[in-house]
Amino acid sequence: MEKAVLLHVICGVLAVLVVAHVKADDPYRYYTWTVTYGTLSPLGIPQQVILINGQFPGPRLDVVTNDNIILNLINKIDQPFLLTWNGIKQRKNSWQDGVLGTNCPVPPNSNYTYKFQTKDQIGSYTYFPSTLLHKAAGGFGGLNVYERPRIPIPFPNPDGDFTLLIGDWYKTNHKILQQSLDSGRSLSFPDGILINGQGQNTFSGDQGKTYMFRISNVGLSTSLNFRIQGHKLKLVEVEGSHTLQNIYDSLDVHVGQSVAVLVTLNQPAKDYYIVASTRFTKHVLTATAVLHYTNSHTPISGPLPIGPTDQIQWSIEQARTYRWNLTASAARPNPQGSFHYGKITPSKTIVLVNSAPLINGKQRYAVNRVSYINPDTPLKLADHFNIPKVFSVDTIQVIPSSGPTFIATSVMPVSLHDFIEVVLQNNESTIQSWHLDGYDFWVVGYGSGQWTPANRSTYNLVDALTRHTAQVYPNSWTTILVSLDNQGMWNMRSAIWERQYLGQQFYIRVWNAVHNLANEYDIPSNVLFCGKAVGLHP
């Protein structure tokens, strides 16, 4: 009897220790966010915006590697709504990706609880609405994943940490913008640029100290250049990759991208301009903020620091200087360079060509001649329950061919654990920005004209950085390498929202016939059902 009691006590203590260990390593963070409309004047004119907990932009999420996020989203606007977590890989869990191919939107006056983990990630990210044109009204915010205490970072801890959400902005209501696109008309040129949802912000720091600036382009369509008057920018992180710490006067940040820089306040005590301005546009839009030295008694003065405007080659050359820090750790203790991606032979080459056709007299956008349309039933639900006639795995080709463009719900099947080469070919005269959910990828090459296999000799197969969003310059190509280690249904899309909304996207179905929790998590018990899935149960 005493042995049994003692065994019971020991088992109980061990159970408590195990639970304590799990909670200590992978803590849970709980949030409740309410989405509403509000009236603000970001560009000086009152307009309807989307607020989260009354905030515009939304609350900043500051979390740590491997944290479990439990976020109850309450939708109080008059349209179905979703948030997506831009750059969070959702390991084995595309159920929580928050796009229309994986989730039913949250109906008005309803809620959905996201449950996801920032598994093996660090870095600067964002979240934003993936539904309709809601992103044009707000609902976006910063999402910063900090390293665990025992994981070193390749620079001294900064004295402060600022998140800057920069992006183009329209004074026009998001529903009117949507109506314009639905009628087949492109959006007009943006009305202005915002920094953290305003035309004017102040960021304060002490002279002699060093601060991290996390800069994300949350706009709809426009590449931006970022710079600070009189100060250098030391690049240290790009979308979860620690970089070689090159010094820049200014940085291009394309739509959907994020960078983190260190700025040392080593100038005379005064106030300085922070500037974000448009790139590759005939008319240059500019927004300013203030870097304020706490011991300053001198207001900002002098001309704005000059940045590049339409110099494409300048941007290409800068992009090629972004390199992986091979000896630095990321979310795990092992160095980033311990994965020798350049020594792996790709199992497949996919070439994706974007286009801007007219279909039935209306403006559409397409990939390899297919202009994507969202079905009423999320692809993930249709795939899980074997619901027929929702999507097709035969419409989009891995190598483009000639012929007319058509509308379809296109899914590209690939195999789990494949390693693929993806060429993003842009034959248009405007810059493109491509994003892949569920992954980061190595950006190994940029080039002009038509890509050919001979261009592989120019790839960086040693220290190309990984990121989740890559730019493709006009009449040029960009090549990425992807290790398909995350099973699920993943959205490949233009980060330029008009193009995404009107068809420049598709889904990649990463699949393994063996179904187990080592490959992919089960369907959530709280999953929302819509379309042909109504009436089903997890």
UniProtKB/TrEMBL annotation:
Occurrences of domain Plastocyanin-like (ranges): 35-148, 161-295, 377-513
Family per similarity comment: Belongs to the multicopper oxidase family.
Signal peptide region: 1-24
Name used for this protein in its record: L-ascorbate oxidase homolog
InterPro entries: Cu-oxidase-like_N (IPR011707), Cu-oxidase_2nd (IPR001117), Cu-oxidase_C (IPR011706), Cu-oxidase_fam (IPR045087), Cupredoxin (IPR008972), CuRO_1_AAO-like (IPR034273)
GO molecular function, one term: oxidoreductase activity
Keyword set, alphabetical order: Glycoprotein, Signal
Domain of life (superkingdom): Eukaryota
Organism: Juglans regia (English walnut)
